[in-house]
Design brief:
Layout lengths: L10 H4 L3 E2 L5 E2 L8 E10 L14 E2 L3 E4 L2 E6 L1 H23 L3 H9 L14 H6 L1 E3 L3 E3 L3 E3 L2 E2 L4 H4 E2 L8 E4 L14 E4 L1 E2 L4 E9 L3 H17 L11 E10 L6 H5 L4 H9 L10 E2 L2 H8 L2 H11 L1
Parallel strand pairs: 4-13
Antiparallel strand pairs: 1-2, 3-15, 3-16, 5-6, 6-10, 7-8, 9-15, 11-14, 12-13, 16-17
The protein binds zinc ion.
Zinc ion (ZN) binds next to helix 4.
C-alpha cells in the first residue's frame, strides 16, 4: 500500500473522536484531502433481483434502462451502499468481539451507544465516519464513500429471465401460503431475475481515506457478496467481485466509458495498460497486491481500536 502513502490519512486525523464535553464525542472535521478510487467488476453467481419500484399484482420486474444502445439491468448505488454498509458493520462488530468483549458494551463505552443501521447511528464510529450519519440535535458527519449507479455489461435479452426469455419468470412461494388449501395465485409470486454470470463494472471513491478504510471496504464487499444484494437476498443476489484497480485520485473515466463497446477483458486491459487513467500514476492493478492490502485488516483494525 506504500504507493498510496501520499493520499492516506493517519487514523487519528479521521477516525478518532475528539472528546468535547463529558460524554460527548465528535469525529474530527474531515476536509477533502485526497481520494482513493477502487474499480472492479461484480459477477452475479445466483439469481439477482434488483428492484426499486412496486410491480403489478404478484409479479416483480427487474430495474432496467436503455443505455448506450442496449437495454440493461440496473444496479443502483443506493442498494450497493446500503448492503455494503451493513456488511461493513457486521465485520466491524465481529472484529470488536475478536479483540475484546461483547460488541454492544464495547460500542457503548467507546462511542456512547451501540450504533444501529439505519437508526440510531452513533455518529462517531468507523462505520459512521465512512458511510456518513445524521443525528437529530447532535449534527452529523458526511459520507466519505461515494458510489455510482451501474448497469449490466450484457443486454437485458441476454441477462434477464423474463416472460419473453427461454427460462420464463421465476416462481416463489408467498410467506402466508396455506398448505391445506388448493394453490391459487395468492400463494405464489412471479419474478424476473438477472441471471448468474451477468457482469456489473463498478467505481467506488473514498475521500480522505485511511489505510483502514481501504482494507475495510475491500473486506466488506466480499462479505456483502455472500450476504446478497437485491430482493429476497437471503437466497438470491450473491456475487463474486474482482477488484481491478486501487488508485490514488479520481478516475478520468466513468461507468459509461467502461460499458461502452467493451468486454470484461477489454475493461481490464484498458485499466491495466493505462488507457483508462486516474488523476495520478499511483495505481495498483496487481491482484496479489490488492489481496495483500485486504489482508492487512486485522492489524490496522487493532491500531484503530487501541487508539480510541
Ligand atoms: Zn456509528
Amino acid at each position: 500500500m506504500e504507493i498510496l502513502q501520499n493520499v492516506l490519512q493517519p487514523i487519528e486525523k479521521v477516525l478518532i473522536p475528539e472528546k468535547k464535553k463529558k460524554d460527548e464525542r465528535v469525529l474530527p472535521p474531515v476536509f477533502n484531502r485526497g481520494v482513493v478510487t477502487i474499480v472492479g467488476i461484480k459477477t452475479v453467481t445466483t439469481r439477482f433481483i434488483p428492484v426499486s419500484h412496486e410491480g403489478f399484482s404478484n409479479e416483480t420486474y427487474v430495474d432496467k434502462i436503455d443505455l448506450l444502445g442496449k437495454k440493461r439491468a440496473e444496479f443502483i448505488s443506493r442498494k450497493l451502499k446500503g448492503i455494503e454498509r451493513r456488511a461493513h458493520m457486521s465485520l466491524f462488530r465481529e472484529m470488536v468481539e475478536e479483540n475484546n468483549g461483547v460488541w454492544k458494551d464495547e460500542f457503548e463505552s467507546k462511542f456512547g451507544k451501540p450504533c444501529t443501521i439505519p437508526a440510531p447511528l452513533c455518529v462517531t464510529c468507523w462505520n459512521c465516519s465512512l458511510f456518513g450519519a445524521l443525528e437529530a440535535g447532535k449534527g452529523g458527519t458526511f459520507s466519505r464513500i461515494r458510489y455510482f449507479d451501474t448497469w449490466s455489461l450484457q443486454s437485458a435479452d441476454e441477462c434477464i429471465a423474463s416472460t419473453t426469455s427461454e427460462e420464463g419468470l421465476g416462481i416463489g412461494n408467498t410467506v402466508n401460503e396455506n398448505l391445506k388449501e388448493e394453490r391459487g395465485s395468492e400463494s405464489y409470486h412471479l419474478y424476473e431475475y438477472v441471471k448468474a454470470g451477468t457482469k456489473f463494472p463498478f467505481i467506488t471513491i473514498i475521500e480522505s481515506p485511511t489505510a483502514l478504510d481501504i482494507t475495510g471496504y475491500l473486506a466488506a464487499v466480499q462479505r456483502a457478496d455472500v450476504h446478497g444484494y437485491g430482493k429476497y437476498s437471503a437466497n438470491h443476489g450473491k456475487f463474486q467481485t474482482e477488484f481491478i484497480a486501487v488508485a490514488e485520485g479520481m478516475p478520468e473515466f466513468s461507468i459509461l466509458d467502461l460499458l461502452e463497446n467493451n468486454t470484461e477483458e477489454e475493461i481490464k486491459n484498458k485499466i491495466n495498460t493505462g488507457k483508462y487513467k486516474f488523476e495520478s500514476n499511483s495505481v495498483i492493478t496487481d491482484n496479489e497486491e490488492i489481496k495483500s492490502i485486504k489482508n492487512k485488516l486485522p492489524e490496522l483494525f487493532k491500531e484503530y481500536w487501541n487508539s480510541l
